Automatic annotation (TrEMBL), chain A:
Histidine-containing phosphotransfer domain (HPt) contains an active histidine that mediates the phosphotransfer. InterPro entries: AHP1-5/YPD1 (IPR045871), HPT_dom_sf (IPR036641), Sig_transdc_His_kin_Hpt_dom (IPR008207). The modification Phosphohistidine is found at residue 119. Functions as a two-component phosphorelay mediators between cytokinin sensor histidine kinases and response regulators (B-type ARRs). Plays an important role in propagating cytokinin signal transduction. Residues 77-173 form the HPt domain. Keywords: Cytokinin signaling pathway, Phosphoprotein, Two-component regulatory system. This is Histidine-containing phosphotransfer protein. It is found in: Cytoplasm, Cytosol; Nucleus. PANTHER family: HISTIDINE-CONTAINING PHOSPHOTRANSFER PROTEIN 5, PHOSPHORELAY INTERMEDIATE PROTEIN YPD1. It comes from the Eukaryota.
TrEMBL record, chain B:
Residues 686-803 form the Response regulatory domain. It is a multi-pass membrane protein. SMART domains: GAF (SM00065), HATPase_c (SM00387), HisKA (SM00388), REC (SM00448). Its cofactor is Cu cation. Residues 427-663 form the Histidine kinase domain. It catalyses: ATP + protein L-histidine = ADP + protein N-phospho-L-histidine. Belongs to the ethylene receptor family. This is Ethylene receptor.
């Protein structure tokens, strides 16, 4: 039994809970707890993140360019991807607005302007790796070439839908990233899972 | 015609052939004239008869007035004849007989060749055909001669005479020829006869020999059958019994017996007999002279019927005992059975086979029978040895089978035990952990809440105990898996430096609280990226450092990691050899704490053992930590040991593990700046990026920044012209937007920088891959073209190529 002297006190350092005591056993306890906790939370989050990311690729929202983009993120530029992506979404909304204005009046459609807008959008989406958006842009450009207003309107609608969808998805992804970082883990860069600690203590609360 | 009373006899005497005059001096009347006519006719008739083959010319019925008849007969002898007879004269009878005989002779002569032909045709071979033809011709001609003779009895024409002559001539020729031929033939025929005799003798001889051979063949067949019978079974008793039965049958023996040596080898015991159903169990000593005689030779030996081995039944004096033959049968032991020295048997044990011919039969032992007996004896010996071998092998096989069965049972028991243990472990793993973790988690949560000090104490104890229990379970499971050998290292690439830092981060808070400074020394040549089992290595380091912290009340702890070379001090039973891309990592954890008694050091790594000393309280740990660490280290082909100078003098824990150096410099999530160096260092390279699209611009900038370049961005051509300076080494311009103005910029830049070395390199970023774009770029003086979107590796390669060669046209 521990005496009153060796009451454990709690400290929060770096967002983690530290337990310590005079008693040597506290070390084992602490270590095990920490390892256990880290393992549980971080691993879970990391797996979640990776599964989500993989699903985005599989569903065609993202392509290789996004992977390249992630490669460019490092210690010096930790929010690079987020910045690029947010810029892209801003761009998207601006361009879509201007294009919808151009296509508004059926008798006075400035296809040149629409074309340049589509061109811009295509360039941006391929730079970012937004695959679905890029594909819609390709068919949008075709409609523009033949000056098909109806087709253009349809494509515009689709582009709008796609970019908003992608925005939501990427938002979720970034949230997961934040959670992982807060839990003290590292964001998985490669698809094989990345765990560092005793994996045999698996969380069994839900068996 | 003639009147009976007119019998006139005329005798004709012929002196010459020329004229025959018959004078009749009677003057007769007409009646007489008639008579003279008759007379004339008779005379003529007579003449014809006697001259036979004459042609008589006479003046027909010329009546001389003088009544003289003149008849002219030419050239033939005439005989006196009494020709005018009213009946046949006695001579005619002879002629008749001759006639008949001639006829029959002819018939016989003609029939002989026919018979010959018939019989020769029937027989297959007749060597003398030509002789036969000759003989046939001769006979036929003789027959013809005799046949033609028939015609000459009466008057005959000249043709007949001619034919007759021809026939006779031919006959003469042929018969002479045949006679001459027979001179040659008859000796041959006689010799044929001798040859025939010779052949007959030979045939008789062959018959005799055939008989002999047949008997021999019979004997041989018997032997084969016997052998077959003997060898068809591998049962010793059956072999011997069959031998006796078959021998008895083949040779028609009265009695047949087999004497086997007893176990002592001093006596022969009667083991098997043919006729007697229950042989009397008597023995004879083995040293009898007759037995020695038989054993001394491999041949069958005739022995006296009165010898002890041959006296099998009570002798009733009436019998004349049949001849007895004895032969030895070698009893081969398994070890004797060497094929190489088969004729010279190195065995001393023989059995005796005694064969008795029937009494009162006067039969004798023939050579071939003796040979048969010898052959049989040999066969029996071989068959017996085979039987012996078979027995041995059967015994061995039975033994093996028993052992197999026993082993099988033992194996199944072991398997059951293992399965039971595995089941237990599996159950323990899952079932025990679930409540365990529930307890730990909920106790932790409970701690967060408002508690009285007493409650807090209780909760802490609960937490502590349950954590310890969890640790114990895990350790035990680990250990059991390690001992099973079922634990395998999970290899992967990881950052060794980061690993150490993390361990220290974990330990530092505690060390700080205990006021134990920890220092980490990483050798400069320690590889950063290695391949190994990261988790387990961390476990080992954590364990050892944790122990160091645990058992130190004061002092400092130092952790050193280095690459070990072979000349470093190592325990004598371990030799370190770096091989290939592998190296041995050595970690030394030195503390100045409690220290360990050198005598206790060996016990440290045994599981469940703990050092109990007055200075230290029982730590309460499971004592498995070091054991598990040791096992992991061993798995990593390394070694772990502890050095201590004694109690209170601190101790050093050292371990070596084998790791592989990673080929790829994989960056585990946190790459450093600058990026991995290529042969051209991009650090600080000034570049200008011109792109109207904000997003693309940002991406390209990020790319180049990542590579270490100093990037300036512009969004229009005018701005680009304004900003570009000789400091910029490369200008990336986006030419995606339709329109030729983009390319104009290149020309303007060329104008601006007249001197070649000052001008920055111009690279176009385009979304097209066709040749026309490339040609266009070339024509406008661009140094390179890149396809958007550019990957990191691509950009890196392009930059290095560009700066090396100052031109690039392959990056499409």
């Amino acid at each position: 039994l521990m005496t009153a002297k060796s009451l454990a006190s709690k400290e929060t350092v770096n967002g983690r809970c530290w337990f310590y005591s005079d008693d040597d056993d506290g070390i084992s306890v602490y270590l095990n707890r920490e390892l256990h906790a880290m393992n549980t939370v971080v691993a879970q989050l990391q797996t979640q993140f990776q599964d989500y990311l993989v699903s985005l690729y599989q569903q065609g929202f993202l392509d290789n360019q996004f992977t390249e983009l992630r490669k460019l993120q490092d210690e010096g530029t930790p929010d690079f991807v987020a910045e690029v992506v947010s810029l892209f979404f801003d761009d998207c909304s601006k361009l879509i607005n201007s294009m919808s204005r151009s296509l508004e009046r059926p008798e006075n459609v400035d296809f040149k302007q629409v074309d340049s807008g589509v061109h811009q959008l295509k360039g941006s989406s391929s730079s970012v790796g937004a695959r679905r958006v890029k594909n819609v842009c390709i068919s949008f450009k075709e409609c523009c070439d033949v000056q098909n207003r109806e087709g253009c309107l349809r494509c515009l609608q689709q582009v709008d839908y796609e970019y908003k969808m992608l925005k939501t998805k990427l938002q979720d992804l970034f949230n997961l990233e934040k959670q992982i970082v807060q839990a003290g883990g590292a964001i998985p860069q490669h698809f094989p899972s990345y765990t560092i600690l005793r994996p045999d203590i698996r969380p069994c609360l839900d068996a | 015609m003639l009147e009976p009373e007119l019998k006139l006899l005329y005798r004709i005497n012929a002196q010459s052939w020329k004229d025959i005059n018959v004078d009749v001096n009677h003057k007769v009347e007409s009646r007489l004239k008639l008579k003279f006519l008759e007379l004339e006719l008779k005379l003529l008739h007579c003449l014809l008869t006697f001259t036979k083959q004459n042609v008589i010319e006479f003046d027909p019925l010329h009546i001389n007035p003088n009544f003289s008849i003149s008849v002219t007969v030419s050239n033939h002898m005439m005989e006196v004849c009494n020709c005018i007879e009213p009946q046949w004269p006695a001579d005619e009878l002879l002629m008749k007989y001759q006639y008949i005989s001639d006829f029959f002779i002819a018939v016989a002569y003609f029939s002989i060749p026919l018979e010959l032909i018939y019989f020769v045709k029937k027989s297959a071979v007749f060597p003398y055909r030509w002789v036969l033809v000759q003989f046939g011709a001769f006979i036929v001609l003789c027959g013809a001669t005799h046949l033609i003779n028939l015609w000459t009895f009466t008057t005959h024409s000249r043709t007949v005479a001619l034919v007759m002559t021809t026939a006779k001539v031919l006959t003469a020729v042929v018969s002479c020829a045949t006679a001459l031929m027979l001179v040659h033939i008859i000796p041959d025929l006689l010799s044929v006869k001798t040859r025939e005799l010779f052949l007959k003798n030979k045939a008789a001889e062959l018959d005799r020999e055939m008989g002999l051979i047949r008997t021999q063949e019979e004997t041989g067949r018997h032997v084969r059958m016997l052998t077959h019978e003997i060898r068809s079974t591998l049962d010793r008793h059956t072999i011997l019994k069959t031998t006796l039965v078959e021998l008895g049958r083949t040779l028609a023996l009265e009695e047949c017996a087999l004497w086997m040596p007893t176990r002592t080898g001093l006596e022969l015991q009667l083991s098997y007999t043919l006729r007697q159903q229950h042989p009397v169990e008597y023995t004879v000593p083995i040293q009898l002279p007759v037995i020695n005689q038989v054993f001394g030779t491999s041949r069958a030996v005739k022995i006296s019927p009165n010898s002890p081995v041959a006296r099998l039944r009570p002798v009733s004096g009436k019998y004349l005992l049949g001849e007895v033959v004895a032969v030895r049968v070698p009893l081969l032991h398994l070890s004797n059975f060497q094929i190489n020295d088969w004729p010279e048997l190195s065995t001393k044990r023989y059995a005796l086979m005694v064969l008795m011919l029937p009494s009162d039969s006067a039969r004798q032992w023939h050579v071939h029978e003796l040979e048969l007996v010898e052959v049989v004896a040999d066969q029996v010996a071989v068959a017996l040895s085979h039987a012996a071998i078979l027995e041995e092998s059967m015994r061995a096989r039975d033994l093996l089978m028993e052992q197999n069965v026993a082993l099988d049972i033992a194996r199944r028991e072991a398997e059951t035990a293992i399965r039971a243990r595995n089941d237990f472990l599996a159950v323990m793993n899952h079932e025990m952990r679930t409540p365990m973790h529930a307890i730990i988690a909920l106790s932790s949560l409970l701690q967060e809440t408002e508690l009285t000090p007493e409650q807090r104490l209780m909760v802490e104890t609960v937490l502590k105990s349950s954590s310890l229990l969890a640790t114990l379970m895990n350790d035990v499971l680990d250990l059991s898996r390690l001992e099973d050998g079922s634990l395998q290292l999970e290899l992967g690439t990881f950052n060794l430096h980061t690993l150490f830092r993390e361990v220290l981060n974990l330990i530092k808070p505690i060390a700080v609280v205990k006021k134990l400074p920890i220092t980490l020394n990483l050798a400069p040549d320690l590889p950063e990226f290695v391949v190994g089992d990261e988790k387990r290595l961390m476990q080992i380091i954590l364990n050892i450092v944790g122990n160091a912290v645990k058992f130190s009340k004061q002092g400092s702890i130092s952790v050193t990691a280095l690459v070990t070379k072979s000349d470093n001090r190592a325990p004598p039973d371990f030799f370190v050899v770096p091989t290939g891309s592998h190296f041995y990592l050595r970690v030394k954890v030195k503390d100045l704490g409690a220290g360990i008694n050198p005598q206790d050091i060996p016990k440290l790594f045994t599981k469940f053992a703990q050092t109990q000393s007055l200075a230290t309280r029982s730590s309460g740990g499971s004592g498995l930590g070091l054991a598990i660490s040791k096992r992991f280290v061993n798995l990593m082909e390394g070694n772990i040991w502890i050095e201590s100078e004694g109690v209170g003098k601190g101790c050093t824990a050292i371990f070596d593990v084998k790791l592989a150096i990673s080929n790829e410099s994989k960056q585990s999530g946190i790459p450093k700046v600058p990026a991995n160096p290529q042969h051209v260092n991009f650090a600080g390279l000034k570049v200008l990026v011109m792109d109207e699209n904000g997003v693309s611009r940002m991406v390209t900038k990020g790319l180049l920044v990542h590579l270490g370049c100093e990037v300036t961005t512009v969004s229009s051509n005018e701005e680009c012209l304004r900003v570009v300076s000789h400091e910029h080494r490369v200008v990336f311009m986006d030419v995606c937007t339709p329109g030729v103005e983009n390319y104009q910029i290149a020309l303007r830049i060329h104008e601006k920088f007249t001197k070649r070395h000052q001008r920055p390199l111009l690279v176009a970023l385009t979304g097209n891959t066709d040749k026309s774009t490339k040609e266009k770029c070339m024509s406008f003086g661009l140094d390179g073209v890149l396809l958007k979107p550019v990957s990191l590796d691509n950009m890196r390669n392009v930059l290095s190529d560009l700066l090396e060669h100052r031109v690039l046209y392959e990056a499409m």
